Automatic annotation (TrEMBL):
Residues 17-335 form the Enoyl reductase (ER) domain. This is Zinc-type alcohol dehydrogenase-like protein. PROSITE patterns: QOR_ZETA_CRYSTAL (PS01162). Coiled coil: none annotated. SUPFAM superfamilies: GroES-like, NAD(P)-binding Rossmann-fold domains. Gene3D superfamilies: Medium-chain alcohol dehydrogenases, catalytic domain (3.90.180.10), NAD(P)-binding Rossmann-like Domain (3.40.50.720). Pfam families: ADH_N, ADH_zinc_N_2. It comes from Paenibacillus tyrfis. CDD domains: AL_MDR (cd08252). InterPro entries: ADH-like_N (IPR013154), ADH_Zn_typ-1 (IPR014182), Chloroplast_QOR (IPR052733), ER (IPR020843), GroES-like_sf (IPR011032), NAD(P)-bd_dom_sf (IPR036291), Quin_OxRdtase/zeta-crystal_CS (IPR002364). GO terms for molecular function: oxidoreductase activity; zinc ion binding.
């Protein structure tokens, strides 16, 4: 089968950084399903994992953690899906990624594709939505009941990206006042279109900007951008007994003691935790994605696709990786069709 992968890390500009390959078609075992891949999308995780020293299995290595497709075969222990089902999912870091014509994945982290979306739009959702959903509702413990969140605020740092685009919509559904950060005219406009109540610039001090729009502090902060760059701003504007969720690893030590007087909770999120450690609640991602599909089909969540490419090949994936690595991407880049 066709796939896109690599043998060793090389800068994305190198002609062999990503290659068109022919690899063996996998077979599902246990609770695995075999999916014919119709579309994929690209995330910051792709170039990050491409640079890792520790890889899964033997080369060539295959990336890709956003897939939409059709189930063609199920393992002997499967109970959730049958051949012919349309599905979408983000996959796992401990197995090969989905940048291939066929892909094997544990059914417990797979959802039913929204019926109102084509495969390309569906492929844009899983990783960012799981990250956003778990950050807001599992890590920050925000209620999904709008009445419980009346007069509560959340600051979303990096709101124009893939995760931010979904997190913003989920937070609005939960009844929060959302303050997003963005810096360029196009990203500011994007954040406003998605429903942000206010937008501030993350290259300027936060507190004066918040005070101008009537806030001395915020109840929650979801930082999807450079943790080191924004830490001092976060500690200044988080409310007493507030909560901060981080998804970008810090390079310098974090001065957590600065938050002691406020009794602030700081939590981490990675959507791969459940699949990597095979946690007892791993099937929560299946239920989460099914609930997302319902919200999409009800018109309550929109996709964040800003660019579509075809076909799925090394040349187009190099272009997508380069855009992600530039740090200037807005929304999601999706690729569809292997032929």
């Amino acid at each position: 089968m066709k796939a896109v992968g690599y043998y060793k890390y090389l800068p994305i500009e190198h002609p062999e950084s990503l290659l068109d390959l022919e690899v063996l078609k996998p077979s599902p075992q246990g609770r695995d399903i075999l999916v014919e891949v119709k579309a994929i999308s690209v995330n910051p995780a792709d170039p990050i994992v491409r640079a890792y020293d520790n890889k899964v299995g033997e080369p060539p290595y295959i990336l890709g953690w956003d897939v939409a497709g059709v189930v063609v075969q199920v393992g002997p222990e499967c109970t959730l899906f049958r051949p012919g089902d349309g599905v979408f999912y983000a996959g796992s870091l401990i197995r090969p990624g989905g940048n291939s014509e066929f892909h094997v994945v544990d059914e417990r982290i797979v959802g039913r594709k929204p019926s109102t979306l084509d495969f390309a739009n569906a492929a844009s959702l899983p990783l960012t939505t799981i990250t956003a959903w778990e950050s807001l509702f599992d890590r920050l413990l925000i209620s999904q009941n709008p009445e419980a969140n009346r007069n509560k605020s959340i600051l979303m740092i990096g709101a124009a990206g893939g995760v931010g685009s979904i997190a913003l919509q989920l937070a609005k559904l939960a009844g929060l006042t959302v303050i997003g950060t963005a810096s360029r005219p196009e990203s500011i406009q994007w954040v406003k279109e998605l429903g942000a109540d206010f937008v501030i610039n993350h290259y300027e001090p936060f507190l004066p900007q918040l005070q101008k729009i009537g806030f001395d502090h915020v109840d929650y902060i979801f930082c999807m951008n450079n943790t080191d760059q924004h830490w001092n701003n976060m500690k200044e504007v988080i409310s007493p007994q507030g909560k901060i969720c981080l998804i970008v690893e810090n390079e310098a030590p974090i001065a957590l003691g600065l938050l002691k007087s406020k009794s602030v909770t700081v939590v981490w999120e990675t959507m791969f935790t459940r699949s990597t450690f095979q946690t007892e609640d791993i099937e929560e991602q299946h239920r989460l994605l099914n609930r997302l599909a319902e919200l999409v089909d009800e018109g309550k969540i929109r996709t964040a696709v800003t660019e579509r490419m075809s076909p799925i090949n090394a040349a187009n994936l190099k272009l997508a990786h380069a855009k992600i690595e530039s740090g200037q991407a807005i929304g999601k880049i999706v690729l569809e069709h292997f032929n």
